[in-house]
Amino acid sequence: MTEEKKKLRSLASGPLLALSALSGLLSGLAALAVAELVAGVICPQAGPVVAAGGAAIDRTPAAVKDWAIRSFGTNDKLVLQIGIVAVLAVFALALGVLALHHRRLGAAGVLFFGAVGTVTALNRPDTTGLTDALPSLMGAVAGAGLLYVLIGRLSSSTQASHDDADPIGPAGQGWDRRGFVIAATAAAASAGAGALGRSLNNSSGKAAASSRNNVVLPFPDSPAPATPKATQLRVAGISPFITPTKDFYRVDTALVVPKVDATAWRLRIHGTGVRRPLTLSFEDLLTRELIERHITLTCVSNEVGGPYVGNARWIGVRLADLLMECGVAPPSQGGRADQLVARSVDGMTIGSPVEDVMDGRDAMLALGMNGEPLPFQHGFPVRMLVPGLYGYVSACKWIKDIELTTFDAYDAYWVRRDWARRAPVKTQSRIDTPKPFAHPKAGTVMVAGVAWAQSRGIDRVDVRVDDGPWQEATLAAEDTRDTWRQWSFPWRAAKGGHTLTVRATDRTGQVQTAQRTRTVPDGASGRHSVVVTVE
User: Fold this and answer.
1) Fewer CB within 10 Å, N- or C-terminus of the chain?
2) In this structure, are residues 399 and 269 in contact, taking their beta carbons and an 8 Å threshold?
3) Which helix (H) or strand (E) holds 106?
4) What secondary structure letter does DSSP report for 517?
């Protein structure tokens, strides 16, 4: 081989590697697109990205999950899915390069990832059976086949170039048109298949959307007490007493929001101490005695001063009434079960103390939120909530099953991941205004925010400026002990940097602790502070 031919072949190695990597990427795209298409027909949750994301969430340590929620908020699931696709793209590029030298081995690598996706889909808590394996399997076969063909084009062109007098020609000319057309066609077909899959995913929820649109919530038998006008302070920047539905926080593990058809939905109540098991439809619940209450919900992942707390008007059926109808008694009255395990359609399990559910508080199976049927992202058709408990031990969305058992016999999802079995909401307060690092003008500055201690109620809020004495804030009127309470404090602000700190005292006399703890295992504690510069 002449030196000139060696130089030309060396020049070609770069373009060939790039084209082989591109072939791998296109093949990976095709695999995901075909899988998305099949998942759209069978089950959106069985798609490889969603299944892998769910498996990642299930196996992620509690501290890492907590960090993700703090860092990305409600976008944590989107970030996870983008990360999964990015990792798969890197592997696809590598398999393309591998296939240039070992064609069958590269294609086998795509099939291996399909097998992993298959196993992951079949091990989902909400798997519907062997059909959940089809998206990953069919996607892998399509991707492996495309990679085999594309690399075959490159290999054929390379072999032909070895026999030419001018083996390479201008960089990449040996591959040129036919391979490029095949790759471009594959990419276009992949994009089309993926778009069609997404469309099918959306259309699969049409029956559920129709069932929600047809829901007419009856007027409650027990309406929420009239809210005093003075519950809402006229202070700019303070959180509204009722959180608009669109602004209500959402923290859960569902990468795909379940779309449940209310006409087909059923709830089963059974288990230890249940003398009369019960199965209910959505219509059954609508015809029962309905209560309406303002209740503040709090996520255990809420850091001190965090946003994962909201107050809404809920309408539903008293959970205690249903349990008593089934013959269930709380442990204090000799009941055999001390834990109620709620199961969601997506496989989530949430364990609540039976005593808390039946102690007279307004624990309910909620059907509506702020005057409308529950939104899908907040649990339509039915969700559970228990005032005074963090969401991970009370607020099961998309509920389908209630089993009575004991804490010794069963650990729910979050308990198996190092969270506490019991988690009453801690007494907390937050400064809404001024915002951190704000630059208010010297003079009277209104400091205001919210405080909450569900099931106990807020008795007092105090504010401290720098290291000065605690000064009592003015409380807005209380709606109920299960709702947050607004507060305000007129501060005569002097120029310079200052630290504002707030603390609350609940109706039991418990003062919000200054000791800082993280959210794991049973909720954050500490006092919220903001630093401002007065000009």
Assistant:
1) N
2) no
3) helix 103-122
4) B
